[in-house]
Design brief:
Helix content: 40-55%
Largest sheet: 8 strands, parallel
Distance between the termini: 14 Å
Oligomer: single chain
Structural class: alpha/beta
Shape: globular
CATH class of the largest domain: Alpha Beta
Number of helices: 13
Order of helices and strands: HEHEEEEEEHEHEHHHEHEHEHEHHEH
CATH architecture of the largest domain: Alpha-Beta Barrel
Strand order of the largest sheet: 1-14-13-12-11-10-9-2
Length: 377
């Protein structure tokens, strides 16, 4: 089978020649090792063997967010302003929003040695800021999806893999406006106001998802954000209120056009897996093992594997921290549990990827082990 055929068969629950193996962001993100930008950690020579391994021997899943173009009547520039500057090599971005007679500000930081954006200041600091934010006209959230980059990525990857549309759900769009503490307090104590926020953010997300699913049908999607409503932050009843209610329309739109909806959810899954299945999801990632998660891969396969394609469940700290013999035993167990008994499909995959400037020989060797075990079947 080609790598593309193997992934398509896995998603459809058809037999495959061997389990698929994928490195998640490595081979997924649009990584450019030749870009000399000082903030590009991937141009360090230590990354090249790992990037080459992903391209040549893994089942590639290109993760691409949809390109969003402001709708014709979108007045966003009247309310939102963004400025970026550098200090001692660190890149800062400030967002300013004028709404409801208030000036709302957010600040993020990007250090050159780590491929991560740190939120220093959230846009909304409390209920008064939320009330002001809700006065923004609905049109500022209206965007039209452009499938061009997705089609281009699909043409480039050819039979080495597939393209996966990467999109937030309404809960993610709402939660990221706050600090984690303020989000949790508001979601618990002010559900009426939080539903008003979700009710404002959800329709444009639903609309652009429907449009893109119609013009780019039959593909895999990753929906991220449901983890905000898992324990210990919120309870399963909140997952029903804030995820199932607002994210199921995305799943329905994707599946209506023959696509596959993969729910991205770190952390504790046990209590919400039945709700994820009830939404009609096709797949789940990254299924973190205890203690990061609260359920073993074998149990997920046994209880939910007939309905869900499972992606996971190798922790990045194991890849970077374990000696190769110990890591091989862990990876072999994951492969065994992920493919045991009856099930729709399994993709051996890390739960995250390195974000630092250098890749150690041990890390590279452990990634090579994942490929070798999967190829062995």
């Amino acid at each position: 089978m080609t790598r593309r055929d193997r992934l398509r068969a896995t998603l459809a629950g058809r037999p495959v020649d061997r389990p698929a193996v994928n490195f998640y962001e490595i081979g997924g993100f649009d990584i450019r090792p030749d870009d000399p930008d000082e903030a590009n950690v991937y141009n360090d020579p230590s990354w090249r063997p790992l990037l080459r391994l992903a391209e040549e021997r893994t089942d590639l899943i290109r993760m691409r967010p949809p390109r969003l173009v402001p709708s014709a009547d979108n007045p966003r520039d009247r309310f939102f302003r963004e400025e970026t500057w550098k200090e001692h090599g660190t890149r800062f971005t400030r967002t300013t929003v004028r709404a409801g007679g208030r000036t709302l500000t957010a600040l993020s930081r990007r250090n050159p040695e780590i491929d991560t954006v740190w939120r220093i200041e959230p846009l909304l600091k409390g209920l008064d800021d939320l009330r002001a934010f809700l006065t923004l006209p609905d049109e500022v959230f209206a965007f039209d999806p452009d499938p061009g980059p997705l089609l281009q990525a699909e043409q480039e990857v050819a039979d080495r893999g597939i393209v996966m549309v990467d999109t937030e759900d309404p809960l993610c769009a709402a939660a990221q406006l706050f600090s984690m503490e303020d989000f949790a307090v508001l979601a618990w104590s002010e559900p009426a106001w939080f539903h008003r926020l979700l009710g404002k953010l959800a329709p444009p997300i639903h609309q652009r998802t429907r449009r893109l699913a119609e013009i780019f049908p039959g593909r895999l999607w990753r929906i991220y954000g449901p983890e905000y409503a898992t324990e210990p932050f919120l309870r399963p009843r909140h997952f029903e209120d804030y995820v199932v209610r607002y994210t199921k329309p995305l799943v329905d739109a994707i599946r209506k056009t023959g696509g596959y909806a993969r729910i991205h959810c770190h952390g504790r899954l046990r209590a919400v897996l039945p709700l994820i299945r009830a939404m009609g999801a096709d797949a789940i990632d990254p299924i973190e093992p205890p203690p990061q998660g609260d359920v073993e891969l074998a149990e997920v396969r046994r209880e939910h594997g007939r309905d869900l394609v499972l992606f996971g469940n190798i922790e990045i700290n194991a890849i970077e921290g374990l000696e190769p013999p110990e890591f091989e035993r862990l990876a072999a167990r994951a492969l065994r549990e992920g493919t045991a008994g009856e099930g729709r499909g399994f993709v051996l995959m890390p739960t995250a990827s390195p974000c630092g400037r250098t890749i150690s020989p041990r890390t590279l060797r452990n990634y090579e082990t994942l490929v070798r075990l999967a190829e062995r079947g």
